[in-house]
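Query structure, 232 tokens:
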């Protein structure tokens, strides 16, 4: 009689158990790798937008795109608004305007421009940003673009810069646990939210909420409106 080699039920269960353990161990690693890839894409996106912003200024004698003179710019949420914006001639791929990890179904735009470099006055303090790129002091410390989840927000005015108390007006993106940003000199960073209350604001629906000791808010408001570092 011929002997037939085969796995026993116990051997099959052992193999399945080993595979299950490997999946449990590797899945968090794979999730981190995927998130790192999304974040890298976002950093590339906000850098391309910052370069486009600089190129616009170069082509217009240093003048920055003005929100009040060009209401479309690129920050309305419709495709028409993006395609007819000031920066679309420099960045024509719609993919650049959206984070691949943005959980909002149908969202076309995941990034906003800082109103300080957009020809609009700083909220509450009548602080007007530079109209010409040559007037932007310390560009490496001023955010130009930031990742944000507000579909209808036309510009990045996240904190109401009232001295007492500083308050959130809206909270930047939450799906990375922070936001990717680009600065006036073209470099990019990932701002990780450190205060648990920042993420809680998303769950509560946001709104103007005073959090004078929120370190995320205090750090962000200075990067958006640099004059605030001199105010108490």
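Result returned for the query:
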């Amino acid at each position: 009689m011929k002997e037939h080699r085969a796995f026993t039920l116990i051997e099959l269960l052992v193999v399945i158990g080993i595979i299950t353990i490997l999946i449990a161990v590797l899945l968090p690693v794979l999730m981190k790798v995927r998130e790192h890839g999304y974040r890298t894409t976002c950093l590339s996106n906000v850098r391309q937008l910052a370069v486009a912003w600089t190129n616009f200024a170069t082509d217009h004698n240093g003048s920055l795109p003005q929100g009040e003179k060009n209401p479309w710019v690129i920050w309305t949420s419709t495709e028409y608004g993006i395609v007819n914006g000031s920066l679309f001639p420099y960045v024509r791929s719609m993919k650049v305007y959206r984070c691949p990890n943005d959980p909002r179904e149908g969202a076309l735009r995941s990034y906003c421009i800082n109103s300080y470099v957009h020809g609009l006055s700083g909220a509450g303090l009548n602080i007007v940003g530079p109209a010409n790129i040559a007037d932007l002091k310390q560009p490496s410390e001023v955010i130009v673009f930031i990742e944000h989840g507000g579909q209808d927000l036309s510009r990045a005015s996240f904190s109401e810069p009232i001295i007492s108390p500083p308050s959130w007006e809206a909270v930047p993106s939450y799906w990375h646990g922070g936001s990717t940003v680009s600065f006036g000199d073209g470099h990019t960073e990932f701002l990780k939210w450190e205060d648990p209350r920042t993420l809680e604001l998303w769950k509560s629906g946001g709104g103007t909420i005073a959090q004078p000791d929120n370190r995320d808010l205090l750090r962000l408001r200075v990067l958006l409106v640099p004059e605030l570092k001199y105010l108490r």
